[in-house]
Amino acid sequence: MHSITELQAIVKRTFEEETFSFEPTGLYDPISYTLGAGGKRIRPLMVLLGCDLFNGELSQARPALLATELFHNFTLLHDDIMDQAPLRRGRETVFKKWNTSIAILSGDTMFAMACEHLSTLPQEVLPEALALFTQTARRVCEGQQYDVDFETRQNVSIREYLEMIRMKTAVLLGCSLKLGALIARAPAAEAEKAWAFGENIGMAFQLQDDLLDIFGNEKKFGKETGGDIIAGKKTFLLLKAYELASPEEKAELDSCFSHASIPANEKIARVRRVYDALNIRQITQSEIGIHYSRALELCTSIRADETGKNLLKTFADEMLKRDF
Question: What count of other Cβ atoms lies within 10 Å of the Cβ of residue 83?
Fold first, then answer.
């Protein structure tokens, strides 16, 4: 059994050893730039955690480790275009540094590279792993489409929003942990529990991401705050605010989101004031806690070494320790 620090070192070493510099450079330089930004590399770490939890051979997890991170970054390149986000991890986004066409094509290439790496898994686990990965990729795209649809829909429910973030974000975390479990040849029922643990942690992570977008420290968060308000995104925070708001507060929110002429800083400040009046930050933190508690219950039920399960709990705690 390895410590989280040891597993992180394996992830770091893997990406240092792997080259992403190929010809044509116009296609691959943005990929090297993106992966060179580092980040927490949560998904590849989850692959290793899932494999180690069931005493698997970590070297066999390398293809899945690379595949999950390449796929995740592919989605970010396209997501940044759709959101017109200028910053990612404290640096210019690819479409800002290069252009939109290059960001699309480099992202597509990262998806292809992810599948290429995954195809080198041991033959006895490849069919199930590939099915899981491609089904997850499809769900992520479906979740992204719902996210886009919600921008123009007036009647989005909190239930619909939670289902959207489950597909867009949480399923890839569940997939990463389950891929590791499959590589370790874990029993099907235990691999499924690992998947559900990852999914619930993913839900908590995305809700916290929504919270940080409004209340986070820009330098520590790595991107501009208030982006969801400017984009008119129907996040858990906004939907809950409309659910709880008085007629006057609803009118204020309507005004902020219906008048394009309001300066960005003013719009963000006005919406935040409504959120503060309705305790939206605390309510969102409670929702995060619900998913976190479910994840811990699932972790307890997994039939595996207690040391490994404690590592999963530690990982969950560390993952949700992000600064405001």
Answer: 17
